[in-house]
């Protein structure tokens, strides 16, 4: 009887241990692991080359005081990330990854396969560019695009890319995990020199470092919800403040680039001046009562704004519900829009508030 109990106990222990091992195996392959497995194969390493020219002189001629200028050229390598997002082999990345490049040296998949690509186009303001794999794209993996509009503060996200990739000797991407720290983050208009649309961004504490630019930000379902673009840092490295362009805007910019070769420039068609920078006596003379806003000082009669009813002397208080205090605020909102989009202007005209509906048009070429 004792032998039977010992044997039964041993078998029971084996069964429990087996179940526990299975449970551990299941927890290892959690949603984050599975999301990485879905997206990582479509992430590419982008190596670029910039040819820099430097002036100098020949030491031999310097000895005799008739130095002859020389020109030296050397290649500077750069690295970034990107990802394939459709069956046709289109690749998304940041514009700044390619901006100063004289050539794309290589585009490499995680397994080491090199892809021959061509540039479809880019948009500096949106900081987005599209490449395309040449030739047959059968068997080339691609990532699924998700919904950045439904992101929740605190939900898990994964940054995939090639931080410090020039220090690595293999092409596999790195991953870092964090949460959505904030949605629709608007950074100072001076960031990016005032020439980049770093507005309406996803903020995350997933580690983003040099080389991550252009890589995907992925949700727990294995869908791309943003493109990793910039960090705030005092040291140049990760400090917990990373920012991604939401995929909702990326889709629209990429569609424009693939259809037209560039993003069509949206246009309101007026010139403004901040009330804070305008002579108070002038404002009093034309009946302005608002304390902040943008005064319309010039407007083209062929512009969408003029056709909608905006006039010189109007004060623009907000556009699409966003208060404006400086002309660059209007520009930034304009850049977020696309041809045919509506724009609701709240204006003050001689002390009375009005609402003007403008339909965005393309800048005349």
Report the sheet-strand fraction: 35-45%
Query: Helical segment tally?
Result: 8
- Determine the CATH topology of the largest domain: Thrombin, subunit H
Biggest beta sheet summary: 7 strands, antiparallel
Shape: globular
- The CATH class designation of the largest domain is Mainly Beta
Estimate the mean pLDDT confidence.
Answer: 86
Q: Low-confidence spans: pLDDT under 50, at least 5 residues?
A: none
CATH architecture of the largest domain: Beta Barrel
Annotation, overall tally of beta strands: 22
Look at the helices and sheets and give the structural class: alpha+beta
Descriptive report:
The chain folds into two domains: 240 residues, Beta Barrel (Thrombin, subunit H), CATH 2.40.10; 97 residues, PDZ domain (Pdz3 Domain), CATH 2.30.42.10. The protein is 22% helix and 37% strand. Strand 20 and strand 21 form a beta hairpin. With 365 residues, the protein is α+β, with helices and mostly antiparallel strands.
At a glance:
With about 375 residues, this protein is α+β, with helices and mostly antiparallel strands. Helices cover about 20% and strands about 35% of the residues. The chain has 2 domains: about 25-265, Thrombin, subunit H (Beta Barrel), CATH 2.40.10.120; about 265-360, Pdz3 Domain.
Secondary structure topology:
Blueprint: H1 2-28, H2 31-39, E1 43-57, H3 59-62, E2 69-84, E3 90-93, H4 95-98, E4 103-108, E5 114-115, E6 117-123, E7 128-133, E8 144-145, E9 156-161, E10 174-185, E11 201-204, E12 216-219, E13 223-231, E14 242-246, H5 247-260, E15 266-267, E16 270-274, H6 280-285, E17 294-299, H7 304-308, E18 315-319, E19 322-323, H8 327-336, E20 342-349, E21 352-359, E22 361-362
Parallel strand pairs: 8-13
Antiparallel strand pairs: 1-2, 1-4, 2-3, 3-7, 4-5, 6-7, 9-10, 9-12, 10-11, 11-14, 12-13, 13-14, 15-22, 16-17, 17-18, 18-19, 18-20, 20-21
